[in-house]
Design a protein that fits this description.
Length: 528
């Protein structure tokens, strides 16, 4: 018996799972729809601290998730998920059949309970609607991973040796470095999606990510910085870096050095910041120029999350908040101005980035959705369920961290679109202001209508020249005011890997990309 199931086992079970779903939906009287996701992942991971080995191992997962819609007079969903092992492979058909039965029974029970509540609570019960899925083009497709170095072929010893050497170099960079943490992982992930509508989709991704965390001691206290590098490619991302895509200014849209240079640069910044003065907060708005890395977190927090339609429809209110873009059906920002003509923002899973895929976790073909179009609010990332509620076309943003979990609406590659300005000219036009570089920690209002986001570095701008650097600063603003005040957008579009976006209950951590170009606006400074 093999110790684990390889991703190469997915094609072997594809036809059998397809036949199972088709026959199951016909065999149950009140089964309206069913789908199954099966996922296998294989990879390597290693961690070093202060130049010493901390941990290394082989990362592995084998899981499935099932959704059934059923009910006699009312339609409701039922879900079932499981994490399985190699010993389950010979009986995977039976495990899936048992899971389908559990999901079907839950769907029917939910439907009966909903029907009873409708009659019991009269007008209030009418709020309990049937679960329906907006139509999508049903596809049968296979998408392959892109990589030069297969993550499965990299010796674990090599992964551990590399991160240890990076950590040693960081530790020896300066006497002010008092702690560092370096990690790297590389993996292949393969998912099969099959539905009773006829979808049969096999997708594989290569994923590699590096992490660096540095603490440096200065005379007035310590500073700490952390950041991530990563892309949907093989081990070469860690050891060689990546430069892909083309921004409006001609440079690469995805540009990351190898993990060694990435970590050393972060360590240099940390040491330099430990010797800097803290930024002084302001009571009034000032001119601010924000770099692409800082804008990645702005886009993530005040564009990406509030444009996830499950949040906007109050599915998340109890544990994650709402969205000021859609307070209710009558009071919302659809078609209204929320930024200057220079502000366009989108989510697009089809372009390269950490959030790339061609089909989401319900088989919907992915496509670009514009949240802001020249300052006008355009719409939300959605699922088939939420698209049906709003009478929209599904745009393929229903994703789960693991096949055993219920998917949620998630950002993909979500970013501000580039403008046509040279970023150096944007700074040269500022008589007095601040240049805000790199994101750190967000603090966001419950409905995302205002934000406070700290930066890695803040520089003073005087007469168009970058001057003194400050630590412990950031920006605070009303979201709409901030976007309405944008008066310059650069052509230096960049995408950054965001590997740790949390959402849901239980919490799911998702990979995605966020970014944009250099932008100029007005905001209050946070600091001391």
């Amino acid at each position: 018996m093999p110790q684990r199931v390889s991703i190469d086992a997915i094609p072997q079970m594809r036809d059998a799972v397809f036949d199972l779903i088709a026959s199951y939906s016909r065999s149950k009287r009140h089964c309206r729809y069913a789908d199954v996701r099966i996922e296998v992942s294989e990879g390597k991971v290693a961690v070093a601290e202060n130049g010493m080995d901390k941990f290394s191992g082989e990362d592995y997962g084998f899981a499935f998730g099932i959704r059934v819609l059923g009910g006699e007079n009312v339609v409701s969903p039922g879900y079932f998920g499981g994490i399985v092992g190699a010993a389950d492979l010979p009986e995977i058909g039976e495990r899936l059949k048992e899971g389908l039965d559990h999901a079907y029974e839950r769907a029917v029970a939910n439907a009966r309970a909903k029907e009873g509540s409708r009659s019991r609570f009269s007008g209030l019960g009418d709020a309990l609607y049937d679960m329906s899925l907006a139509p999508v083009e049903v596809r049968q497709d296979t998408t392959d991973a892109r990589y030069e170095i297969d993550p499965r072929a990299v010796p674990l010893e090599e992964v551990g040796k590399y991160v240890r050497e990076v950590s040693q170099r960081v530790q020896g960079l300066d006497s002010g470095v008092v702690f560092n943490y370096v990690s790297a992982y590389t993996m292949l992930e393969r998912q099969l999606f099959v539905s009773s509508e006829g979808a049969n989709i096999d997708q594989t991704w290569a994923i590699s990510q590096g992490t660096c965390f540095v603490v440096a001691q200065g005379k007035d206290g310590h500073q700490e910085l952390y950041d991530y590098s990563g892309h949907q490619r093989g081990w070469e991302v860690i050891t060689r870096g990546v430069e892909e895509g083309v921004s409006a200014g001609g440079g690469p849209a995805i540009q990351m050095p190898h993990l060694m240079d990435f970590s050393l640069e972060l360590a240099r910044d940390t040491v330099a910041l430990a010797a800097c003065k803290p930024l002084k907060a302001t009571d009034e708005e000032v001119v601010v120029v924000t770099d692409p890395h800082y804008n990645a977190l702005v886009c993530h927090e005040v564009v990406g999350h509030p444009t996830e339609l499950d949040r906007a429809l109050k599915f998340e209110t109890g544990y994650a908040g709402r969205s000021w873009f859609l307070r209710d059906v009558k009071e919302n920002q659809l078609g209204k101005r929320v930024g200057s003509d220079l502000v366009t923002a989108f989510s697009d899973p089809t372009i390269d980035g950490f959030g790339h895929y061609m089909y989401d976790d319900e088989g919907t073909p992915a496509r670009r959705v514009y949240h802001f179009d020249k300052g006008i609010f355009g719409g939300f990332s959605n699922s088939r369920q939420t698209a049906a509620i709003m009478g929209l076309e599904p745009n393929g943003h229903y994703k789960a961290t693991d096949a055993s979990l219920v998917p949620l609406i998630r950002m993909s590659n979500t970013a501000f679109a580039p403008g046509d300005r040279d970023p150096h000219d944007i700074i040269r036009e500022v008589e007095k202001g601040y240049y805000v570089v790199g994101h750190r920690i967000p603090s966001i209002a419950e409905s995302r209508e205002n934000f406070r986001i700290t930066a890695m570095k803040v520089y003073e701008i005087r007469n168009g020249e970058i001057g003194e650097m400050f630590r412990d600063g950031g920006l605070m603003s009303d979201t709409r005011d901030y976007f309405l005040n944008v008066d310059a957008v650069g052509n230096d579009f960049r995408l950054f890997a965001i590997p740790n976006c949390g959402k849901g209950q239980p919490m799911q951590t998702k990979r995605m990309s966020n970014g944009g170009p250099t932008m100029r606006s007005r905001a209050r400074l946070t600091g001391v």
